[in-house]
Specification:
The chain is of the alpha/beta class and about 280 residues long. The protein is built from seven helices and eleven strands.
Length: about 280
Protein backbone atom coordinates (compact mmCIF):
# COMPACT_ATOMS: atom_id res chain seq x y z
CA UNK A 1 0.00 0.00 0.00
CA UNK A 2 1.38 3.39 -1.04
CA UNK A 3 1.91 5.80 1.84
CA UNK A 4 0.15 9.16 1.48
CA UNK A 5 2.17 12.15 2.63
CA UNK A 6 0.47 14.52 5.06
CA UNK A 7 0.49 18.28 4.99
CA UNK A 8 -0.50 21.33 7.07
CA UNK A 9 -1.08 24.66 5.36
CA UNK A 10 -0.86 28.14 6.92
CA UNK A 11 -1.78 31.46 5.28
CA UNK A 12 -3.57 29.32 2.70
CA UNK A 13 -5.49 32.05 0.89
CA UNK A 14 -7.73 30.56 -1.79
CA UNK A 15 -5.48 27.48 -1.84
CA UNK A 16 -3.22 27.86 -4.86
CA UNK A 17 -0.19 26.18 -3.28
CA UNK A 18 -2.41 23.63 -1.53
CA UNK A 19 -3.94 22.59 -4.83
CA UNK A 20 -0.49 21.87 -6.23
CA UNK A 21 0.36 19.61 -3.29
CA UNK A 22 -3.06 17.96 -3.46
CA UNK A 23 -2.57 17.20 -7.15
CA UNK A 24 0.81 15.70 -6.22
CA UNK A 25 -0.95 13.25 -3.90
CA UNK A 26 -0.65 14.91 -0.50
CA UNK A 27 -3.34 14.57 2.14
CA UNK A 28 -4.01 18.06 3.55
CA UNK A 29 -4.87 17.60 7.22
CA UNK A 30 -5.58 21.26 8.01
CA UNK A 31 -5.44 24.66 6.37
CA UNK A 32 -6.01 28.16 7.70
CA UNK A 33 -6.63 31.74 6.65
CA UNK A 34 -8.32 34.69 8.32
CA UNK A 35 -10.05 36.06 5.20
CA UNK A 36 -13.60 34.68 4.95
CA UNK A 37 -13.87 34.98 1.16
CA UNK A 38 -10.60 33.10 0.76
CA UNK A 39 -11.70 30.21 2.98
CA UNK A 40 -15.07 29.99 1.24
CA UNK A 41 -13.30 29.77 -2.12
CA UNK A 42 -10.99 27.15 -0.66
CA UNK A 43 -13.93 25.06 0.58
CA UNK A 44 -15.66 25.19 -2.78
CA UNK A 45 -12.59 24.08 -4.71
CA UNK A 46 -10.34 22.04 -2.40
CA UNK A 47 -12.00 20.86 0.79
CA UNK A 48 -13.67 21.53 4.13
CA UNK A 49 -10.48 21.09 6.13
CA UNK A 50 -9.75 24.83 5.96
CA UNK A 51 -10.34 26.81 9.18
CA UNK A 52 -11.26 30.49 9.30
CA UNK A 53 -9.33 32.25 12.05
CA UNK A 54 -6.32 34.31 13.14
CA UNK A 55 -3.31 31.98 13.31
CA UNK A 56 -1.82 34.09 16.11
CA UNK A 57 -4.74 32.96 18.29
CA UNK A 58 -4.70 29.26 17.31
CA UNK A 59 -2.53 27.00 19.54
CA UNK A 60 -0.41 24.39 17.76
CA UNK A 61 -2.21 21.75 19.84
CA UNK A 62 -5.46 22.63 18.03
CA UNK A 63 -3.87 21.75 14.68
CA UNK A 64 -4.18 18.07 13.60
CA UNK A 65 -1.08 15.92 13.26
CA UNK A 66 1.10 14.33 15.91
CA UNK A 67 4.58 15.69 16.57
CA UNK A 68 7.00 14.28 13.99
CA UNK A 69 4.28 12.57 11.96
CA UNK A 70 3.47 15.49 9.63
CA UNK A 71 5.47 15.31 6.41
CA UNK A 72 5.25 18.91 5.20
CA UNK A 73 4.15 22.30 6.50
CA UNK A 74 3.63 25.00 3.87
CA UNK A 75 2.82 28.68 4.08
CA UNK A 76 2.76 31.78 1.93
CA UNK A 77 3.14 34.11 4.89
CA UNK A 78 1.80 37.66 4.32
CA UNK A 79 3.93 39.71 1.96
CA UNK A 80 2.43 43.20 2.05
CA UNK A 81 5.20 44.51 4.27
CA UNK A 82 7.91 42.87 2.17
CA UNK A 83 6.57 43.67 -1.29
CA UNK A 84 8.58 45.98 -3.56
CA UNK A 85 5.21 47.53 -4.43
CA UNK A 86 5.12 48.85 -0.85
CA UNK A 87 7.53 51.78 -1.05
CA UNK A 88 7.24 52.37 2.71
CA UNK A 89 8.15 48.81 3.68
CA UNK A 90 10.19 48.56 6.85
CA UNK A 91 10.72 46.28 9.81
CA UNK A 92 8.20 48.24 11.89
CA UNK A 93 5.40 46.64 9.84
CA UNK A 94 3.92 43.91 12.06
CA UNK A 95 2.99 41.86 8.99
CA UNK A 96 6.69 41.25 8.40
CA UNK A 97 6.83 39.07 11.50
CA UNK A 98 3.93 36.73 10.77
CA UNK A 99 6.48 34.24 9.48
CA UNK A 100 7.11 33.60 13.20
CA UNK A 101 3.72 31.85 13.32
CA UNK A 102 4.92 29.53 10.57
CA UNK A 103 8.12 29.04 12.56
CA UNK A 104 6.12 28.29 15.71
CA UNK A 105 3.96 25.59 14.08
CA UNK A 106 6.99 24.00 12.40
CA UNK A 107 8.87 23.97 15.71
CA UNK A 108 5.91 22.36 17.49
CA UNK A 109 4.92 19.83 14.78
CA UNK A 110 8.45 18.98 13.58
CA UNK A 111 7.55 18.15 9.95
CA UNK A 112 10.13 16.49 7.73
CA UNK A 113 10.00 19.43 5.29
CA UNK A 114 8.59 22.93 5.10
CA UNK A 115 8.00 25.10 2.05
CA UNK A 116 7.45 28.86 2.39
CA UNK A 117 6.69 31.33 -0.37
CA UNK A 118 7.03 35.09 -0.58
CA UNK A 119 7.53 38.03 -2.91
CA UNK A 120 10.78 39.07 -4.58
CA UNK A 121 10.98 42.16 -2.36
CA UNK A 122 11.82 39.93 0.59
CA UNK A 123 15.35 39.54 -0.73
CA UNK A 124 16.08 43.28 -0.78
CA UNK A 125 14.64 44.15 2.62
CA UNK A 126 17.32 45.75 4.83
CA UNK A 127 19.92 44.90 2.17
CA UNK A 128 19.38 41.17 2.55
CA UNK A 129 19.37 41.09 6.33
CA UNK A 130 15.67 40.11 6.53
CA UNK A 131 16.00 36.91 4.50
CA UNK A 132 19.17 36.13 6.45
CA UNK A 133 17.24 36.56 9.70
CA UNK A 134 14.42 34.29 8.51
CA UNK A 135 16.83 31.56 7.37
CA UNK A 136 18.74 31.73 10.66
CA UNK A 137 15.51 31.40 12.67
CA UNK A 138 14.59 28.19 10.85
CA UNK A 139 18.12 26.82 11.12
CA UNK A 140 18.04 27.35 14.90
CA UNK A 141 15.15 24.88 15.21
CA UNK A 142 17.05 22.18 13.34
CA UNK A 143 16.35 22.64 9.64
CA UNK A 144 18.67 22.76 6.65
CA UNK A 145 17.38 25.79 4.76
CA UNK A 146 17.81 27.04 1.19
CA UNK A 147 15.97 29.63 -0.88
CA UNK A 148 15.73 30.53 -4.55
CA UNK A 149 13.96 33.13 -6.65
CA UNK A 150 11.82 31.17 -9.10
CA UNK A 151 9.78 32.37 -12.07
CA UNK A 152 6.49 30.58 -12.72
CA UNK A 153 6.97 31.04 -16.48
CA UNK A 154 10.01 28.74 -16.29
CA UNK A 155 7.67 25.92 -15.29
CA UNK A 156 4.98 26.20 -17.94
CA UNK A 157 2.74 28.81 -16.30
CA UNK A 158 1.55 31.56 -18.70
CA UNK A 159 2.62 34.34 -16.35
CA UNK A 160 6.00 35.93 -15.53
CA UNK A 161 5.58 35.67 -11.76
CA UNK A 162 8.70 35.69 -9.60
CA UNK A 163 8.52 34.34 -6.07
CA UNK A 164 11.03 33.50 -3.35
CA UNK A 165 10.70 29.82 -2.41
CA UNK A 166 12.21 28.76 0.92
CA UNK A 167 12.61 25.02 1.55
CA UNK A 168 13.83 23.41 4.74
CA UNK A 169 14.21 19.84 5.95
CA UNK A 170 15.31 18.16 9.19
CA UNK A 171 16.57 15.02 7.43
CA UNK A 172 19.98 16.47 6.58
CA UNK A 173 19.50 16.06 2.82
CA UNK A 174 19.64 18.50 -0.08
CA UNK A 175 16.49 20.55 -0.53
CA UNK A 176 14.75 19.63 -3.81
CA UNK A 177 14.05 22.61 -6.07
CA UNK A 178 12.30 21.90 -9.39
CA UNK A 179 14.31 22.11 -12.60
CA UNK A 180 12.98 24.67 -15.14
CA UNK A 181 11.11 23.09 -18.01
CA UNK A 182 10.51 26.20 -20.12
CA UNK A 183 12.55 29.19 -21.36
CA UNK A 184 12.13 32.31 -23.43
CA UNK A 185 12.26 31.67 -27.17
CA UNK A 186 15.80 32.21 -28.48
CA UNK A 187 17.07 32.24 -24.89
CA UNK A 188 20.89 32.18 -25.07
CA UNK A 189 21.27 30.97 -21.47
CA UNK A 190 22.86 27.49 -21.60
CA UNK A 191 20.42 24.68 -20.96
CA UNK A 192 21.09 22.75 -17.75
CA UNK A 193 21.49 18.98 -17.58
CA UNK A 194 21.33 18.76 -21.38
CA UNK A 195 17.57 19.12 -21.08
CA UNK A 196 15.88 20.80 -24.02
CA UNK A 197 13.36 23.32 -22.70
CA UNK A 198 10.01 24.18 -24.17
CA UNK A 199 9.28 27.83 -25.07
CA UNK A 200 7.29 29.95 -22.64
CA UNK A 201 3.53 29.42 -22.78
CA UNK A 202 1.66 32.63 -23.58
CA UNK A 203 -1.69 33.72 -22.17
CA UNK A 204 -3.14 33.53 -25.69
CA UNK A 205 -2.06 29.91 -25.95
CA UNK A 206 -3.57 29.11 -22.55
CA UNK A 207 -6.94 30.85 -22.66
CA UNK A 208 -7.13 32.62 -26.01
CA UNK A 209 -9.85 30.21 -27.15
CA UNK A 210 -12.21 31.85 -24.63
CA UNK A 211 -12.17 35.19 -26.46
CA UNK A 212 -14.75 34.03 -28.98
CA UNK A 213 -17.07 32.24 -26.58
CA UNK A 214 -20.59 33.62 -26.19
CA UNK A 215 -21.55 33.83 -22.53
CA UNK A 216 -24.83 34.41 -20.75
CA UNK A 217 -25.02 35.78 -17.22
CA UNK A 218 -26.76 33.37 -14.89
CA UNK A 219 -27.25 33.31 -11.14
CA UNK A 220 -26.65 29.56 -11.11
CA UNK A 221 -23.28 27.94 -11.63
CA UNK A 222 -22.37 27.81 -15.29
CA UNK A 223 -20.22 25.16 -16.96
CA UNK A 224 -19.05 25.46 -20.55
CA UNK A 225 -17.63 22.81 -22.87
CA UNK A 226 -15.28 24.30 -25.43
CA UNK A 227 -13.26 22.18 -27.87
CA UNK A 228 -13.51 19.21 -25.57
CA UNK A 229 -12.41 21.21 -22.52
CA UNK A 230 -14.55 21.85 -19.44
CA UNK A 231 -14.59 25.49 -18.32
CA UNK A 232 -16.05 26.06 -14.84
CA UNK A 233 -17.69 29.25 -13.56
CA UNK A 234 -16.75 31.27 -16.62
CA UNK A 235 -19.37 34.01 -16.32
CA UNK A 236 -18.88 37.47 -17.81
CA UNK A 237 -21.07 40.52 -18.08
CA UNK A 238 -22.06 41.85 -21.47
CA UNK A 239 -23.41 45.09 -20.07
CA UNK A 240 -22.20 47.79 -17.70
CA UNK A 241 -23.63 47.37 -14.21
CA UNK A 242 -24.67 50.17 -11.88
CA UNK A 243 -21.48 50.00 -9.83
CA UNK A 244 -17.93 48.75 -10.15
CA UNK A 245 -16.37 46.82 -7.26
CA UNK A 246 -13.53 48.64 -5.60
CA UNK A 247 -14.00 51.97 -7.41
CA UNK A 248 -12.20 54.71 -5.50
CA UNK A 249 -14.70 57.47 -6.23
CA UNK A 250 -18.47 57.45 -6.56
CA UNK A 251 -19.57 57.94 -10.16
CA UNK A 252 -22.77 58.39 -12.06
CA UNK A 253 -23.00 55.30 -14.27
CA UNK A 254 -25.24 57.14 -16.73
CA UNK A 255 -22.50 59.73 -17.28
CA UNK A 256 -20.02 56.97 -18.10
CA UNK A 257 -22.42 55.37 -20.58
CA UNK A 258 -23.13 58.73 -22.23
CA UNK A 259 -19.38 59.44 -22.42
CA UNK A 260 -18.65 56.11 -24.08
CA UNK A 261 -21.56 56.49 -26.47
CA UNK A 262 -20.44 60.03 -27.43
CA UNK A 263 -16.90 59.00 -28.35
CA UNK A 264 -18.03 55.80 -30.02
CA UNK A 265 -20.36 57.83 -32.24
CA UNK A 266 -17.66 60.42 -32.90
CA UNK A 267 -15.21 57.72 -33.97
CA UNK A 268 -17.89 56.05 -36.10
CA UNK A 269 -16.84 52.72 -34.56
CA UNK A 270 -19.58 50.23 -33.79
CA UNK A 271 -19.49 48.12 -30.66
CA UNK A 272 -18.77 45.12 -32.89
CA UNK A 273 -15.76 46.87 -34.41
CA UNK A 274 -14.44 47.79 -30.96
CA UNK A 275 -14.77 44.19 -29.84
CA UNK A 276 -13.00 42.96 -32.97
CA UNK A 277 -10.23 45.50 -32.42
CA UNK A 278 -9.55 44.26 -28.88
CA UNK A 279 -10.14 40.63 -29.83
CA UNK A 280 -12.72 40.07 -27.13
CA UNK A 281 -16.49 40.03 -27.12
CA UNK A 282 -17.13 41.54 -23.71
CA UNK A 283 -15.64 45.03 -23.62
CA UNK A 284 -18.83 46.53 -22.15
CA UNK A 285 -18.83 49.34 -24.67
Amino acid sequence: MTQVNTLISLFSGAGGMDLGFKNAGFNILWANDFVKDATETYKNNIGDHVVLGDITEIPSSDIPGDIGDVDVVIGGFPCQGFSIANTKRNMDDSRNFLYLELLRVIKDKKPKFFVAENVKGLLSMQKGKVIEMIVNDFEKIGYKVDYKLLNAADYGVPQARERVIIIGNRLGIDNPFPKPSHARPNNKIPLVDDCEKEPYITVAEAIGFLSDVDLVNQKVEQTLYVNGRTIHNHVASTKVQDSFFGRKHKVNQADICDYLKYWRSKSKWTTKKIDEHFGYKHTAG
